[in-house]
Amino acid sequence: MTPAATAPGRAEPGAGPSPAFDLVRAGAAAAGTGWNPQLEDIARGADPIDWERAGFLAARLRVVPLWWAAVRAAPPGLVPETVRTSVRLDFEAGAVRSLQVTGALLEVLEFFESRGIEAIAYKGAVLAHRLYGNVTMRQFKDNDLFVRPADLDAARMALTDLGYGDLHRASPAGRMVMRRAGHELTMTRQDDVVELHWGVAPRQFAFATDVAGLFSRARRADLDGRPVRYPAPEDELLLMCVHGAKDGWKWLDNVAAVGRLVNISPDLDWAAVVASAESRGATRMLFLGLALATDLLAVTLPGPLTDRMRRDSRLTKLRASTAAVMAEGAPVDLSPGGLRQARFHLAVRERARDRLEYCWRGALTPNVRDCQVVALPRPLGALYYPLHVGRLIARYSPRPWAG
Q: Which whole-number Å values give the CA distances from 102 to 33, 135, 401, in the listed order?
């Protein structure tokens, strides 16, 4: 049972969430604690459960570990044995991968330390360990590390010495442009992937990541006997909501992570989180992530915050449409550079100047794909800017001669 499989028992559009989706989201809300009365009520309700459909949704929405924790604790005979076996195999395959990625993370962090490079582990193994006490309870395939911009070259060289190579293999001019316009550098070594971050979203997204602040507020967690830096909960919550908005909230796993972080952080400084979001025009992105956690997983938020979220009519439409698409198990394709992606990104911004900046930068700022078209020497790196504009014109201009 894989995300690429054909969706079994797909509900008719507009039919509302299916019992299978309700069961999967209840399993995600259980956060790995097993079977509970809510799951029991849904499973034995008046509407029959399409267990194959539930398994598909769990895989498609990347919550197989949380789904398996519920399924394996279900009363005997309730879950068909074929479904139970399929979910278990999916979980075990993902768990092996998560453990491999965790080992690669610890290797990289140890090597960075030997080179005097500080890094903050973002998402991945450290987040899974903090949220659920077990790295196998989230699905992840790579390691994301924040490094200070001044340390980016040193970090890249350190990874090169460990056998990693630049995924995009850009020219020096291309790397310079990608660093200005982007937010991450992807390095690979066979199946191992490390993304070095100096931001959470590309420059076009018009969200400024306070990397210096991340390091000054970072905390430490013990991962397999080693202290590892991670973002403070207030920073991490906002980053996760911005990341979710950037990707179109395709996966229930990300919503579950937001909800779980809220639930395990009773001392969360909500005023600081909201103030940080407001200062960067990311309030609606923050609220959308929190709204989805509330709507789908019944996460409880402070009353004043909930009241403020209700007053945003655009947020009301976004939370409903995003949850509905997720329930279908076939999220809208938000391919980078596409019009659907742009429309969604514009909808999650509350400030007109951020929407204008998004459009302006999208029209004029080169991206990774531009740098892959041609490898320009460093003296000619500025030509990537007109190249980007030309590619946009070619992509979206009318073609009366076609056909």
A: 23, 8, 53
Q: How far is CA 307 from CA 69, 114, 274, in A?
A: 34, 49, 14
Least Cα distance to 50 among 86, 21, 15 occurs for: 21
At residue 44, the pLDDT reads 93
The count of C-alpha atoms lying within 13 angstroms of the C-alpha of 308, restricted to the half-sphere facing its C-beta, is 15
Look up residue 41 and give its two tokens.
């009520």
Whether the Cβ atoms of residue 230 and residue 240 lie closer than 8 Å to each other: no
CB 152 within 8 A of CB 112: no
The average confidence (pLDDT) of the chain is 89
Our CA dihedral for 200, 125, 272, 358, rounded to 10 degrees, sits at 20
d(CA 152, CA 146): 9
**Across-strand partners of 144?**
122, 195
Q: What is the enclosing helix (H) or strand (E) of 186?
A: strand 184-189
Taking only the tens place, the pLDDT of each residue in 295-313 is 999 999 999 999 999 999 9
Element (H, E) at 54: helix 51-60
pTM of the model as a whole: 0.89
313: Cβ contacts below 8 Å, ≥ 6 apart:
none
Can you point out the beta strands (E) in 190-233?
192-197, 219-223, 226-230
pLDDT, tens digit (0-9, with 9 covering 90-100), for 83-137: 999 999 999 999 999 999 999 999 999 999 999 999 999 999 999 999 999 999 9
- Rounded to the nearest 10 degrees, the angle between the axes of helix 283-297 and helix 19-29 is 110
State how far the Cα of 253 lies from the Cα of 58, in Å rounded to an integer: 9
In this structure, the strands spanning 143-146 and 120-122 are antiparallel
395 three-state secondary structure: helix
The amino acid that residue 266 corresponds to is: P
pLDDT at 54 over 60: yes
CA angle 62, 141, 81 (to 5 degrees): 45
Local confidence band at 391 (pLDDT 50, 70, 90 cut-offs):
confident
- Does residue 272 come out as left (phi exceeding 0), alpha (psi in the -120 to 50 range) or beta? alpha
